[in-house]
Amino acid sequence: DKFLLSTIRDGRSGTSMIPYAHLGKKKIEATVAYLRSHQQEPNRSKEIDKQPKAKGDPKQGKLLFDQVCSTCHGPEGNGYAAGGSGTAVGKQGFLAKASDGFIRETIRIGRSNTRMLSFQGPAALADLSDQEIDDIITYLRTLK
User: Is the pLDDT of residue 84 over 80?
Assistant: First the structure.
């Protein structure tokens, strides 16, 4: 929820998501509540945000990102601006708001109603290990 609240309030620098701070705290919270009213899965945000920080090898993470993630998210995670079909996960507007748990779970299980599919498990697009996922997160955290 913190990710949604801050994204709506502050926007996402370098993307088309403009800030809506002028709505005020109550209206932004109501917007998040509205979005949550459509979810079909249980709200796991507190559990996910409590996950530990990623501990990985950024060099290995870059190799994996280049091989697996850059096809959609563009080189260095620039997303649509780099001609990718996915969001800009390498920009500070995203990285400053997303916890390592949020990124980890998104890679593991994907995001419903988006093009972001699972990247862990035998039926996934790539069967990344927990360590490989942490390597990618650690690499993303090196981007400026």
Answer: no
